[in-house]
Specification:
By secondary structure, the protein is of the alpha/beta class. The chain folds into 2 domains: 65 residues, no CATH class; 269 residues, 4-Layer Sandwich (Metallo-beta-lactamase, Chain A). It has 13 helices and 15 strands. It has a 7-stranded mixed sheet with strand order 1-2-3-4-5-6-7. The chain has a 6-stranded mixed sheet with strand order 8-9-10-11-14-15. Strands 12-13 form a two-stranded antiparallel sheet. Zinc ion binds next to loops.
Length: 366
């Protein structure tokens, strides 16, 4: 390797040492091929736990665009099965007029949801991250899996698509085409319908967490039940997903879609984050009585490892700071004020950006 003539010894010694170190690590990795995979996954795990932007962007790209992401997900699944052999939470099913919703506890804090039309014994599953666990529930219920509704590409939501497809060859996989969803057979656009048995779902395009994130609204009208929203990583109990692939304006528009739904709509999010999220909400709205009451209830539930879903959209509007972007209380808590010339939507996007930034610093979670 040639170095420029005017480079001083101390200047070229740094790249030389760096190159030598890299070659040494590479040799060790090549010498121990099995160890190499573990080293990469361990490194990815460590970086994924950080939120400093440049490091996180590298890890996020590796996670979403390379096989390392899949290996990382498989490792997380193995670890979760060891740590929580009976699941991270105990969940109860809800059945109204023959439509049954079963939250399935998977990985370390995810939920998949099995939705069954009991009259025809056909089922749909939302985000089947762990195919083995979902398959066990399908067998227990004795139902036929007709469709997978995938909210987005992250492995902890889409990782089980292909495994279930192998077991159920006629199973359709729905999602947005821009999100590179494994096994996708039926690409969806905003407000498309998916009908299985007596179950009617409307897909809503809600980018921000990822470019092609979708949420699914099960219409309760046909059976006289409240509607149910499967919100993936857009909205959680008292929280919202991180804005990995969209601006605050994009995310705000997606959150507005959720706010526009009827207050009775049941919310079934993709993760069990209720306790952490309500603690963060206390930081920004310490005097919110609805939040305090919900927190007491959540502590009781989590004390027994019980699932905290579903809440309702009406409830969320009372304590979820990400659905309260318009409130004066939140503006004051964040020290933000609308400028005289500032557009209301742009101002709300600024509020969301600041709120999300504070949450990212508060807890380093997805
Ligand atoms: Zn996600």
């Amino acid at each position: 390797m040639l170095f420029p003539r005017n480079m001083a010894a101390s200047d070229w010694s740094i790249p030389l040492i760096a190159t030598a170190s890299f070659c040494t690590v590479l040799c060790i990795c090549l010498r121990f091929r099995r160890t190499r995979r573990t080293i990469w996954i361990t490194l990815l795990s460590k970086i994924m736990a950080r939120t400093e932007k440049p490091l996180f962007r590298i890890a996020y790209t590796l996670y979403t665009r390379t096989r390392l992401g899949y290996m990382y997900y498989k490792r997380q699944m193995r670890k979760a099965r060891e740590q929580f052999p009976a699941g991270h939470s105990r969940a109860q099913s809800v059945e109204v007029n023959g439509i049954k919703i079963i939250p399935i506890s998977v990985l370390s804090d995810n939920y998949s949801y099995l939705v069954i039309d009991t009259a025809s014994s056909v089922a749909v599953v939302v985000d089947p991250a762990d195919p083995q666990t979902v398959q066990a529930v399908l067998e227990e219920e004795g139902v036929m899996l007709e469709a997978i509704l995938c909210t987005h590409k992250h492995w902890d939501h889409s990782g089980g698509n292909k495994g279930l497809q192998k077991l159920h060859s006629s199973c359709r996989v729905y999602g947005n085409a821009t999100d590179n969803i494994p096994g996708l057979t039926h690409p969806l656009s905003d407000k498309d319908s998916v009908d299985v048995g007596r179950m009617h779902f409307k897909a809503l395009f809600t980018p921000g967490h990822t470019v092609g994130h979708m949420i699914y609204l099960l219409d309760g009208g046909a059976t006289g039940a409240p509607s149910s929203l499967f919100s993936g990583d857009l909205v959680f109990l008292s929280g919202c997903g991180r804005m990995f692939e969209g601006s605050a304006s994009t995310m705000l528009s997606s959150l507005d879609t959720v706010s526009s739904l009827s207050d009775e709509t049941l919310l079934w999010p993709g993760h069990e984050y209720a306790e952490d999220n309500l603690m963060f909400a206390a930081e920004v709205e310490p005097c919110n009585a609805a939040r305090e009451n919900k927190y007491e209830w959540v502590l009781q539930q989590r004390g027994q490892k019980l699932c905290t879903s579903p809440s309702t959209i009406g409830e969320e509007k009372e304590y979820n700071p990400f659905l309260r972007i318009h409130t004066t209380e939140l503006h004051q808590a964040l020290g933000l004020q609308q400028d005289s010339e500032e557009d209301w939507t742009l101002f709300r996007a600024r509020v969301l950006e600041e709120l999300r930034r504070r949450k990212d610093v508060y807890k380093r979670r997805f």
